[in-house]
Specification:
The protein is built from eleven helices and 29 strands. It has helices spanning about 1-30, 40-50, 100-105, 125-135, 150, 155-160, 170-180, 230-235, 260-280, 290-295, 310-340; strands spanning about 50-55, 60-65, 70-80, 80-85, 90-95, 100, 115, 120-125, 180-185, 190-195, 200-205, 210-215, 215-220, 225-230, 240-245, 250-255, 345, 360-370, 380-385, 390-395, 400-405, 410-420, 440, 445-450, 455-460, 460-465, 470-480, 485-490, 500-505. The strands form six sheets. It has a six-stranded antiparallel β-barrel with strand order 23-24-26-27-28-29. A hairpin with a 2-residue loop joins strand 4 (about 80-85) and strand 5 (about 90-95). Helix 6 packs across helix 7 (about 170-180) and helix 10 crosses helix 11.
Length: about 500
């Protein structure tokens, strides 16, 4: 009996050790969050005890921009997430990052959409527990944090370090970035940026307040520490909103060339121009091959600018270039093989941001819609006519006057300006990752679109998706594994044996 008792006791202690290690890991993550820096260890342990562990699959939307019912704060324990504003990816979150605090602190709508790029493990905290931990005695009777918490002026480098776009760079890089920026004093009522303008500046509000305006309507209040302008810097597109100071404010402005990625682009451009300038000259003045210079170059401490060295090295450089091209081909072949085993990324397609601005690149035409979509059951999907062509699906927005018929594989499409009102919708379903996809991209690169007009059947499966390759897709995806698969065969097939891996699926 004694050996059995010892074994059982050892097993029990193992479980206790595992739980202790997990609790220590959570505490380490919480200690690194600036919001919880003032808390004592016992208070942090109280927060850790109230956390809920969550797991989300790749492609799943955790929070949505504009959601007015924010009720949880999130901490990333593992995996990678994408931060999207107005439909544009502006940042990434990984282990140790947190999100969702602004909506809870200010009792406002979510400022961004956060989507799982890979399978992710999160810890979440209910609104009441989060506010109690952060605000403590400053929590008012209505359950909202005293506004003083979010209107206090902030220091430039600290503000940049808290921005999701720049947080991964670290404090030192943000200090250098702040030093390159300029601080402006803005009077109340002054326009800081204007919708439709094209420039390359990124802004952080250091003090005061501002309003984000779209079509004359205030969509969001900006407070110290809030940043704006990342879409114009990253995507080189026109401003999607105006920002107007509500009272006197201080604003840090960083030029796009000051952004580390922008600076790298600038250095490449300047370096290219410098190389072009220094390489010009007549052929007769260029040094011929100097073998002695080439031999000297191999000696330690000898500079590469000796006359004739570069002309001697041209044959070797040609061989190196060919070797590099072969290596790239090998890497590409390896990457293609890996893609076939990559987890499927499922997305809810969004044609408009929540301001009603079109997200993809579109060609504008006139037309009308005849009814709800047959390709998807989404309530905002339609079957429309563009001249002599039928487009299905096309998506609408309550803030837009037209519909977008997308080409999701190339982030483009057609925007139809409606010549008559939309008909009554017969589709009733909200967008959901549980619905069947209307567009698919295979691991092979083939683009496939759901067709409601096909009549072919084989082995009890209908030909549902027409593809750009020779093979079409039969039935619907098998979602039992991380990499979804679907039966693929020619349109005239009588037997279905091949399973094709799905890389992307749009719902």
């Amino acid at each position: 009996m004694l050996p059995v008792a010892v074994a059982l006791t050892r097993r029990g202690f193992g479980r206790i050790d595992d739980r202790a290690i997990a609790r220590t890991d959570v505490l380490d993550l919480l200690k690194a969050i600036p919001l919880f820096a003032p808390l004592r260890v016992d208070a942090l342990e109280g927060v850790a005890a109230r956390l809920t562990a969550e797991r989300h699959v790749a492609g799943e939307e955790i929070v949505r921009q504009g959601d007015l019912h924010a009720d949880r704060w999130f901490l990333v324990a593992g995996g990678r997430l994408t931060v999207e504003i107005e439909g544009f990816a502006v940042g990434a979150l990984e282990r140790g990052n947190q999100f969702g605090e602004l909506a809870l602190l200010r009792d406002v709508a979510r400022a961004a959409t956060v989507r799982a790029e890979t399978d992710v493990d999160l810890y979440s905290l209910a609104r009441e527990d989060f506010l109690a931990a952060v605000a403590g005695p400053e929590l008012d009777g209505a359950g909202a944090v005293a506004l003083a918490l979010s209107t206090a002026a902030v220091e430039p480098a600290s503000a940049l370090a808290r921005v999701p776009l720049l947080e991964p760079l670290g404090r030192a890089a943000c200090e250098r970035l702040a030093a390159r920026g300029r601080i402006s004093e803005i009077d109340a009522g002054t326009e800081i940026v204007r919708r439709g303008d094209r420039d390359d500046t990124y802004h952080v509000l250091l003090s005061g307040r501002a309003q984000m305006i779209v079509d004359g309507e205030s969509r969001r209040e900006l407070l110290p520490g809030d940043a704006f302008g990342e879409i114009a810097v990253l995507r080189r597109v026109a401003r999607t909103a105006s920002v107007i100071a509500s009272d006197r404010a201080r604003v840090l402005t960083v030029d796009g060339e000051g952004d580390p990625r922008g600076a790298a682009r600038a250095r490449r451009r300047r370096g290219g121009a410098r190389r072009r300038l220094t390489s010009r000259g007549s052929r007769r003045n260029r040094p011929r091959c100097n073998p002695a210079a080439a031999r000297l170059r191999r000696e330690p401490g000898v500079r590469a600018s000796r006359p004739g060295y570069h002309r001697c090295m041209r044959p070797l450089r040609l061989l190196a270039t060919l070797a590099a091209l072969v290596a790239v081909a090998v890497v590409a072949a390896t990457a293609t093989a890996r893609i076939a085993g990559a987890p499927t990324v499922a997305k809810i397609y969004e044609a408009f941001n929540y301001h009603g601005v079109v997200i993809p690149h579109v060609q504008v035409v006139s037309g009308y819609c005849t009814g709800s979509s047959a390709a998807t059951k989404r309530v905002d999907a339609w079957r429309c006519v563009d001249g002599a062509s039928i487009q299905d699906p096309c998506f609408s927005s309550e803030f837009a006057n037209g519909v977008v018929c997308p080409d999701p594989w190339n982030n483009s499409g057609i925007e139809i300006t409606l010549t008559q009102p939309l008909p009554k919708a017969t589709n009733k379903s909200s967008p959901s990752l549980r619905s069947q996809p209307w567009a698919i991209q295979l691991a092979s690169g083939a683009a496939c679109l759901y067709s409601s007009t096909t009549t072919s059947h084989a082995q009890g499966k209908r030909l549902n998706y027409v593809c750009s390759a020779k093979l079409d897709l039969w039935g619907f995806p098998n979602r039992k594994k991380r990499t979804w698969t679907i039966l693929a065969a020619p349109p005239s097939a009588t037997s279905l044996r091949r399973h094709a891996a799905i890389l992307h699926a749009w719902m």
